[in-house]
Amino acid sequence: MQDIFNLKDKVAMVTGGNGGIGKGIAYALASAGSDIVIVELSETKTAETVKDIREKFGVHVLGLVVDIGQEVSIQEGVKKAIDEFGKVNILVNCAGVIIRKMPEGYSVEEWDWILNINLRGAFLCSRAVYPSMKEAGGGKIINIGSMTSLFGLGKVVPYACSKMGILSLTYSLAVAWAKDNIQVNAILPGWIDTPMTVSARRDFPGLDDFVRLQTPAGRWGKPEDFAGVAIFLASHASDFVTADYIKVDGGFAQGGLTPTSVRR
Ligand SMILES: NC(=O)c1ccc[n+]([C@@H]2O[C@H](COP(=O)([O-])OP(=O)(O)OC[C@H]3O[C@@H](n4cnc5c(N)ncnc54)[C@H](O)[C@@H]3O)[C@@H](O)[C@H]2O)c1
């Protein structure tokens, strides 16, 4: 049987590829043989990641400084990736930002910043790679949502709206581009130990205990926990899976609703 998880000769673009989850996914796709394009804000951090992936996995890696809040920056970045590799087969929309406060405290600028990066940026990146995927006869888009793609959360309203929007974007792009053999799916992380949640633990005392208690697996997720699901959704193994999501949450979305004394 052919190796349906093999990503050799594929090119994967990962936005936020220096962050916790994005880096975990970039390493996983490289381990399955894919060439990698890291799309990020910081040139220095990107250079380190590019070098490390190249040395560890022997694949071709390109680091691009792109602000996915800016349409022109995305278009230039995708052009550079296609000039270098000739195509983009896999897009992981992972870059994301958050501001935590009560809804009445957000300015218009804060709302726009979050929605522009988390939702509009994912749409613009998908639109920018579409012609290349179509020309190649197919492609894979993996959008990173959140538990707030499913539930409300009072202190992150714009973020939660962007992540519900990510599911809608996933479903609608999947329907629109199924004719082009492009599968579009989402991964919904639970509570994952990354730079984004380091600040949450600082802002909310008691969060660490809450996560350990309310996650049936009894721990925070790690970037490496995304490897299997990301390779699955990026490979031929998922060719008839589209317009769907997979939670990587240690059971939080189900078990988190019951106290541990009731659960076990
Ligand atoms: N950590 C969690 O518990 C958790 C839970 C649910 C969802 N998520 C989502 O997972 C994704 C990754 O989050 P993370 O926890 O790894 O956070 P992170 O902060 O470690 O990574 C986010 C990355 O996005 C990059 N980025 C931000 N704005 C950008 C822009 N304008 N252009 C290009 N890159 C930009 C940052 O430089 C950073 O490296 C995000 O979409 C986040 O919302 C995380």
Write a concise keyword list for the protein shown above:
single chain; about 260 residues; alpha/beta; about 45% helix; globular; binds nicotinamide-adenine-dinucleotide
Task: Please describe what this structure looks like.
This protein has a 7-stranded parallel β-sheet with strand order 3-2-1-4-5-6-7, sandwiched between helices. Helix content is 47%, strand content 15%. The mean pLDDT is 96. Helix 1 runs parallel beside helix 2, helix 3 runs parallel beside helix 4 and helix 4 runs parallel beside helix 5. The protein has 264 residues and is α/β, with parallel strands linked by helices. The N and C termini lie far apart (41 Å). It has one domain: Rossmann fold, CATH 3.40.50. Bound molecules: nicotinamide-adenine-dinucleotide. Nicotinamide-adenine-dinucleotide binds next to helix 1 and helix 6.
Please give the structural blueprint.
Elements: E1 11-15, H1 20-31, E2 35-40, H2 43-57, E3 61-65, H3 71-85, E4 90-93, H4 108-136, E5 139-144, H5 157-177, E6 182-189, H6 195-203, H7 207-214, H8 227-234, E7 244-248, H9 252-255, H10 260-263
Parallel strand pairs: 1-2, 1-4, 2-3, 4-5, 5-6, 6-7
Helix pairs in contact: 1-2, 1-8, 3-4, 4-5
Bound molecules: nicotinamide-adenine-dinucleotide (NAD).
Quick overview:
The chain is α/β, with parallel strands linked by helices and 264 residues long. It contains 10 helices and 7 strands.
How many domain modules? 1
Note the run of SSEs as H and E: EHEHEHEHEHEHHHEHH
User: What hetero molecules are in the model?
Assistant: nicotinamide-adenine-dinucleotide
Helix content, binned percent: 40-55%
